[in-house]
Design brief:
Number of strands: 9
Radius of gyration: 18 Å
Strand content: 15-25%
Structural class: alpha/beta
Distance between the termini: 45 Å
Order of helices and strands: EEEHEHEEEHEHEH
Shape: globular
């Protein structure tokens, strides 16, 4: 009887590496400086935080264990240049870094969304990091790994989700103290259904903050 040969795997991955994947779909990017551009969204399962305004609680659990070679094939089938890894919190799963490296090697434009509580240094330098700094309204303002601000690249994004004036003042103080717009693009995003975007825009203009008012496009359109 013929025996099956060794399982093939991508050069940048290790045999047996898997990620717990919640869903994969093509849509427009919802947040960050790439908002509005088409891409593949890969949502991974699991998160270490439970923010008050979380809109993806279904990604806390469940999902399917998927080997990296299989996952890369699934991503390639969407025939999109951009690939966004999100969650949940994708940095909880260590093989994510090898997935990003392989996608970069294949010519993809990669992005990863992270909640800011974990070390971003292992993220490949070619990948755009979209990092939250959690505000008091999230319930997790003390969980941000502030050292991450020293490791941001010019192509990265820092995002603050604003629920009220307290969140805005908290964010404004960090932006000014750390001179964040000199490091990378800074986004202030009104919590959908909680913070009035027009009021947030007024505050930004009054304080002359060099930030992007980031509306969550996926709350206004649902393309999957």
């Amino acid at each position: 009887m013929d025996q099956a040969g060794p399982q093939k795997h991508s050069p940048g991955t290790r045999p047996g590496e898997c990620l717990l994947v919640q869903e994969i779909f093509t849509s427009v990017i919802g947040e960050g400086t790439s908002a509005g551009r088409p891409g593949v969204i890969v949502r991974l399962t699991g998160c270490n935080l439970r923010c008050s305004y979380c809109d993806t609680q279904y990604a806390y659990t469940g999902g399917n264990q998927t080997g990296l070679p299989e996952l890369i094939k699934k991503i390639e089938k969407h025939k999109q240049k951009r690939v966004l890894l999100t969650g949940g919190e994708p940095l909880l799963q260590k093989p994510v870094h090898n997935l990003l490296r392989e996608l970069n090697n294949e010519g993809h434009e990669t992005m990863i969304e992270t909640n800011g509580s974990l070390d971003i240094r292992p993220i490949p330098k070619e990948t755009k990091t979209i990092m939250d700094i959690k505000t008091p309204g999230s319930g997790y303002a003390r969980h941000c790994m502030m050292e991450n601000l020293d490791w941001l690249k010019p192509a990265d994004n820092v995002k603050f989700v604003i629920t009220d004036g307290k969140d805005y003042n908290f964010s404004r103080n960090i932006i000014k103290k750390r001179r964040l717009p000199e490091k990378c693009a800074v986004i202030m995003s009104p919590a959908h259904g909680t913070m009035d975007p027009a009021l947030l825009a007024e505050w930004i203009l009054k304080d002359k903050l060099d930030v992007v008012l980031g509306l969550q496009l996926h709350k206004y359109i649902n393309v999957k």
